[in-house]
Each structure stands twice: as structure tokens, then as C-alpha cells.
């Protein structure tokens, strides 16, 4: 299993675009500069009235398929 650390800062308005289905994936960059794409739905648990801010650990399984995400800071 591979894991990466990403930093996200999405406003509430920006996340609404994902929530409404205008976009299905969120693209971020890990601490090594690699591009990481996540299904927007996995971020729902972290949304506040200010949006989504924080540092997250993302785990991927076989075929780079999303497994889990957790806030680390």
C-alpha cells in the first residue's frame, strides 16, 4: 500500500462545485510534488463552513486505487 501526504485548502464555495457534481475528482500535489487525484466524495467528512483546510494522509492500494484518508494536521 502506498501513502502520500497532501495539503488542501478549498473554500466552501469551491467544494460546492464538487458536491453538486460539476467535478468528480480533486487534484492535489503531495509533499514530493507528485500529482494526486482523489474522488471528491472522500473529502465530505472534512468539510466545514470554511471549506476544507489541512494536511492529510492518503492511502492507495493495488492499481493506485483510493483506500483511505485521514487528517494529520
TrEMBL record:
InterPro entries xref list: DUF2835
Highest taxon of source: Bacteria
Pfam families: DUF2835 (PF11197)
Name of the protein in its database record: Topoisomerase II
Source organism of this protein record: Oceanospirillum linum
Amino acid at each position: 500500500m502506498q501513502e502520500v501526504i497532501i495539503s488542501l485548502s478549498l473554500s466552501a464555495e469551491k467544494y460546492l462545485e464538487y458536491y453538486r457534481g460539476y467535478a468528480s475528482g480533486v487534484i492535489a500535489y503531495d509533499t514530493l510534488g507528485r500529482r494526486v487525484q482523489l474522488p471528491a466524495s472522500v473529502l465530505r467528512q472534512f468539510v466545514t463552513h470554511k471549506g476544507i483546510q489541512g494536511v492529510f494522509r492518503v492511502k492507495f492500494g493495488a492499481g493506485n486505487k483510493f483506500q483511505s484518508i485521514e487528517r494529520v494536521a
